[in-house]
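can u pls check wat happens w/ fe (ii) ion
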Amino acid sequence: MPLESFDVVDYVVNKGHGVKGLAAMGLTTVPRNYVQPFEERLEATKDNVSDESIPVVDVSNWDDPAVADSICEASRKYGFFQIINHGIPVEVLDEVQAAAHRFFEMPAAEKVKFKRDPTAPGTAKLGTSFSPSKEKVMEWKDYLSLQYFSEETAAADWPPICKNEALEYFKRAQVIIRRIYDVLLKGLNLKGFDKSKESLLMSWIAVNFNYYPSCPNPELTVGVGRHSDGSALTVLLQDDVGGLFVRAPDGESWIHVPPTRGALVINIGDILQLLSNGRYKSIEHKVVPNLRKTRVSIAIFVNPAAHQVVAPLPELLESTGEKPLYREIVFLDYFKYFFSKGHDGKATIDWAKI
Ligand SMILES: O=C(O)CCC(=O)C(=O)O
Ligand SMILES: [Fe+2]
């Protein structure tokens, strides 16, 4: 079928075939809907790659003060770091990756049952791109967002083809998330992470499977456009394909995050930048798809409770005497604003500035 007479949005978004269905048609060029303005393309990135790297922290001994120092310093400077020797067996990581592949390899007729708008309620939500009804150019990515409310809702509603693996990975990752929060709070000279901080930091959690099919024109499009995460913290498991770029501290160039077997990428989200009154940085990043290979990543977005009010931590402001840089916001409003437009760099957190 000639591409001109084919309704791409209807096929990919409404009918639920996703970019995976589009890529399977054997296109030699990406449809117009996926062509990014020049400044967002790979060419603009490739000419501007930094030789810096984001820190890799060996967390085999969480009680070692050097571990805490490295994590806090990386969170202030890069907003990103990788952790190794975190205790999650590599088999658990491999199995959740395999489960994500199995989900996306199901026939579209099976997957479409899970199709939802990104801000609609649901425990397992299939989507494509980022916010298709709001963005100008589409992104070369499909995703399944598994919302964790409780063990029971996950067991009942997550797709059987990937449920056990996702739950196992998520349960193990929770232990690490608590450790990291503890380190980051203490790094602000505050009391460590405990139950009283859950509603603020670790209440609404989503495990997202991101699926980036091989792409005939990686130089024209993006897998994920420039953004910082709207979460408090994100834990990312990537496979061996590569393509994740993080803005360097110079604010200009890009640092590639090299796939590292067994490692997890941790990044500070907007909410932690806001709570820490700008000490910890939520840094812009983007994904470039691959010409030959499908890439899968699994992101755990760790968020405040939906109705939680977030603002720079009063105990931090009191102890330092500084003024808040961000206003009070209900997290759900922040989340809705994030999805009310295409990916646009740091515009969401800028909206929260005083
Ligand atoms: O796939 C990746 O490496 C990153 C994905 C990402 O940035 C996101 O889902 O927010
Ligand atoms: Fe992200």
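The chain has a mean pLDDT of 94.
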